[in-house]
Amino acid sequence: MEKDILVAIHSHASPLLDAMIPVITSMAEPTFIGAFAIGIGLVYMYRRKWTWAALWLGGVGGAGALAYLLKHIVARPRPELWERLVVETGYSLPSGHAVASMAVALCVAIMLWHTKWRGLAVVLGSLYVLLIGFTRLYLGVHYPTDVLAGWLLSAAWVGVVAVVAPKIRRRKVLDS
Question: What percent of the chain stands above pLDDT 70?
Answer without folding.
Answer: 95
